[in-house]
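Dear colleagues,

As part of the handover before I leave the project, I'm documenting each prediction I ran so the next person doesn't have to rerun anything. This entry is a single chain, and its sequence is reproduced below.
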Amino acid sequence: MVPQENKRDSTILSSVKIGSYGVIGVVSAVFMSSVAPPLFTSSSSRAVVNAPITPLTSPIGGTVTGFAGTSAGDASPFSAIIQNDRVDRSTLIGLQMQMGSLQNELDLKKSILADYRDRIADMEGDLERQRQAVLALSENALENANISMRSAKLKAETSKINLNRQLRLIDKGAVAGTQLEIENKLAEEEASTEAAIVNTARLQAILDNLKNRVYVGTENESLSNLEREIRARKADYSQIELQAASLETRKTELATLLGAEDARVARLNKAEIAADPSSVLYRTVAQVGKQVSPGDTVAEAINCQNAFVVAIFSEREAQALSVGSNVKVTIGNDRAPLTGVVTRLVPRTTERVDLDYAVPFPPTERRELYAYISPDEASRQDRSQMAKFCSVGTWVSVSLKRQWVDDAQSALAAGADRVYDGGLYLARELRPLRKDLEKVARDVVDYTATTATAAFTYAQNTVSQGYLAVSSLLAPDDREFEAANRPVRSLEPPRNS
């Protein structure tokens, strides 16, 4: 009875120990799960690449007729064409009719001006030719008048001498006559001379007027009439020219209105919307042939420079994060993780889906935060890295490593390199002693096997003797119970592998 009670007590004690160990194990597991992960790294696999979207809206109402730049290998930026064949053109047609009428009137004015210019030029040519002819006649008449004046002066001088001689003879009574007759003849000669001088002056004045284009007198009446006609034509020409200038001004204003209306009709008739060259197409909302209204979204584009990763961390894990922390972003099985920087840490405050982003944010649970992660400057300079960061909608893993872990890994890697180098050095140095080392190794193995066999035999004998000694001290019932419950052990020596 006593051995059975001792057995029960031992069994109860073992159960208590096992239960205690289990409780300690559970507590240790909980403690390590809460302390060990943040101690080594903070990571989250609930992260997705996201980016703000730029909607490309239609400026007009119409039908989508085509897209460009939608294929993956197309280097040209995305663009869409919207066609509207029902644009009101009545204003444009009215302006075009006004422009046509105004152009015809302006052409008529220009033709009249050209005719006036030709006629004025012809009349001015006739006037100049007639003036030159009259000028030549006047110059000849003036020359004759000058000759006549000189002749009259000479004749008057000669007559005066003769009359003075005759007057002296009359005074002496040599000839018949009176002094009055002699004086009258002298006055007549002086009058003839004066008339020649006046005629010469008149002709000189006429010549000067002709040279100055002043036409006076009946002999120049035709020239005067022709000049008045030219002046009247020039006045009419100036008036018509003013009218043509006014028409030109109206034409310019109308052309401005017509150009604006034409541009408006062209803009409403056909519109091409294009994304920014730095953006890429995310998705097309409207298909070819669909009717759209002004302001409808045709497609959505994203800019890879604005792409970011939104990751979910618990508040406990977020304690190890801070704005500006460097994290590693792993996409799938990519062995080259991307480097990012935490830019924001915000909780979710609403259940509404934010349509400003390409991908809806993953749902959060209690005590969880959103971490916004953007590529660092080095990644922004690398096109391949930015191409990976632009995979919008891809689930990724985000981890924040401790600095001491990285340092330990670096130290272990350096130590492994040194051990490897030392092994290579020993291999090179001990290569000539390979045969001797092999013989020594075989001797050591044989000696170890012999020693192990002897030690096993000695241990077996010692155990057997101890067992016999213990058996002799136990009662018969105890020996039977011990023999029945003694485990069967193999006494064969272990084999050398």
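The longest helix spans residues 90-172. The chain has a mean pLDDT of 73.

All the best with the project,
I.
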